[in-house]
Structures are given as C-alpha cells and as structure tokens.
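S2.1 Query sequence (Cell envelope-related transcriptional attenuator domain-containing protein)
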Amino acid sequence: MKAFDNKYLKRIVFSIQMISMILLIVMAYSVQLIPMKYLIGVGVFFVALLVGEYFLIFYKKEKSKRSLITQILSIILSCGLMVGSFYFYKAGRTVNLMTENKFQTRAFSVIVLKNSEIKNETQLPKHQVGYISSIGTENMSYAVAEIQKNVGNINLKDNKDFKSLLSALYNKNVDAILLDEAFRSLVEQEKDTFSDDTRVIYQVTKDEEAVSSKSVDVTQKPFLVFISGIDEYGDLSTVSRSDVNMLVGVNPNTKQILLISIPRDTYFPLHTSKGMDKFTHAGIYGLQESVNTLQDLVNEDINYYARMNFTSFIEIVDALGGVTVHASQDFTTKIGKYEIKKGENNLNAKQALAFVRERKSFIDGDFERGRNQQRMISAIVKKIGSPAILTSFSSVLDTVSQSVETNFSSSEINALVQMQLADMPAWDIQSYQIEGTPDSLPCYSLGGVSASVVVPSDLSIQQTTNYIDQLMAGEKIQTETGDLDQ
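Output structure tokens follow.
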C-alpha cells in the first residue's frame, strides 16, 4: 500500500510540473510578447528537463534521496512556472487595457458664486446664465440643448471672452455661468481664486470618440507618435489642454528615435476653426484636434498617439524605481525646491515631475523645459530597454495599464516588444525643438484676447519637416543637438 502511495504521489508531482510547463508555454504564446525562437528554445529545454526528472523520480530506489530531492525541486519549479504564467496573463491584459478604444469625456458645468441663492438646477429657468457661444460653438450648443432638455428653458446671455464672462458673474449681472470644464484653467488665468469663489450646481457630459490610428507594420516601417501630457491630475479621460507636446518618430530598421519638441505656446492655426492660437489650447477641443493641428504644422500624417497626465507620469516613474537623467545646468525647481545638478541626477517620481515642469529657472524658459522633457523621455526609454526593468516588471505592468492611453493595437505593441527582445537593439535617440520668437498676440480660445505666444520660425519648421522626411524615408539622421540625455 505504501509503495502504491509513493508511486501515486510521484505521478502527481510529475504531472503538476508537466501541466505547469505546458501552461507557461501556452500563455507565453497567446500574449504574443516573446519571440518564437525563444519559445521553441524554452520548449526544448522543458522537454529535456522532464525526461531527466522522469528518470530521477521513477527509476531510483523508493528511499532514494535523489528521487525525494527531485520531487521537492519539481514542486518548487511548478510554483515558479505558475507564477510565470500569471505574469504572462497579466502582460496580455495590460496591453489590452492600454489599447482598448477609449472615449474622452467633456464636462459642462453650470457655476454660481458660493453665496448664491441658487441651490440646484431646478431654479435655473428663473435666472440668467452667462456663456460664450463663439468658442467651441458645437460643444456649447450641445451643452445648452442638454440643459434645456433636462431642466427647461434658460435665459442665456452671450459674452465675447472669459474676462467679460467673469465680470458678469462677479458683478452679478448674471446669476450663473455655463463653462466647458476644459477651459477652467484659462478662466483661472483671469481669476486665480475662481474655483474657491464658486460652486458647481449642475453638470452635463459628452463622450468624444477615440482617435483612429493610421496603422503600419511597426517592425518594418517608420512611424510617428504624438505624445500628449495633459495639464491635469486624476482621471486620464478628462479633456484638457496639452501641456507636454512631443512628436516621436521611430525607425525600426535604423533603430533611431527622433524626438521633436513642440513648445506649448507655439502660435499656429487650429485645424478646425482656423483660429490662431497656442498649440497647447488645441487639446481643449479634444485629442483629435491636437493631432490634426500638429499634422498641419509638420505636413505629415501622424500614425499613433500616447497620452498621459501628471498622475500617470508620477506613477510610471515610481514603478520604474526612479530615473537617471542628465541636466545641462544647475537649478532649483519651483515645485518642491529640489536641487538639480549639472550632469547626471537620480530622481524619484516627484523630483522627475518637478524637473520636466520647471521653466522659471531658465533664461529661455519653455524652450529649456522642452529640452528637459526630451531628456526625461530619453532616460525612461533607456531604463525600460535595460535589464534594470526586470526588477520592476510587475509594478510597471500594473501602472502602465491604467496610466497610458494609446491607439496602438495590442498586436502592434506585442510586435514591438518581440522585436526588442529578439534583437535587444541600443536605440539611437536624436532630439530637435521647434523654435520661434516670443510675442503677445490674440488667441482664438481666449476670445481674441492677446496672450504670450511663440511664433515659430519658417527655418525651424522647415528643419523639422526635413528631419521627419528623412526618418520616414528610411535614412539615418543626425540632428544638431543629438541625444540631450548624454
């Protein structure tokens, strides 16, 4: 009976390991992240290991120490294989979450002063509501129609810009205002205590469609990605102006990455309205507007986008265990008062965010901030492509699935990962920044009110398009500044 029990136990141990090995191979194959040549190699190794263990377990005496030790090691290995299978499942799920079609949510708020007698939306038909119909006309018409459908007819008073809208509210010429929340940051530039002085009594929302991609074979053809860092904390789906704007060109054949920084104040016609405005304001009208306006600027189709906000950035850098980034000069960040030294700096998540947001410390302000953002992207790319990523793989997976939104398909991301794992290339990162002349000019999103802008030079735009054309044509490029994180 005892001999039977021992033989039965050995079969269970061996079967569990065989099943766990098969499960790992199946999960690794299904997520399409591991190159086939590696999977075949692992499969051959597993078969050889099983054969060896079979003889050690079953062809030794009943009380053989080798048989017992082999069974114990088999159980430990099976546990490890199960954990590995879970992580492959997790990786596949992460990619699917990142790439599923997402909607941006636009919110329209009815806002009153904190001491207003208006308590809720049912009182609105008895009061006058100020708004601006000329900025984002289609969206504002939608908001008005929704409010009137759900609340009843409201008495609207049109205003020409945010200054006159705020003046009407604070002087009580209107009882409430209707505001697209994407414009709140612009309103707060006029009145920095606006959010403290007011409260929202009613809100309607509108879902905006996801941005479609212009897909290519990402392992064979060069492609362009718009990186948008939105000027918000919290929910990534919030419509907001784009504070960080980077066009990334990738050539998988020459193993080059081109980083083009677009200063947030770059003065250029918005794609839809044709109104002259800062590029950062394009994001207020949705991600598609940013992509379309940037395509007009560089005269090239943009294939994909990746979007994150300040919360996302902090979480990703934290998951990576911090980054090492190169600074071109000594400075102290306004946020957090962190001391940054010329040369390499090991930064945690909060320090990294302060680093990429700083502009007050520099003579050329937003231009140096753009270069620092390029340095940070370069540093993150290098860390993700290094063996150091293995120690933070799990936390990075957890973070990225919730922190980055993109219109890459899951198969395209899987193909890029496979290419990186198969070749382990050292990417050549080249940087360039669109330059221009500071000025004060009327902005469409401000109702024609003048604001500080950067008028891009024709020469800089031409140089940008030349670099992009060269990369898209498969040529090896060398920018004037090269890799700034060196």
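The domain at 223-472 is CATH 3.40.630.190 (Aminopeptidase). The chain has 14 helices and 19 strands.
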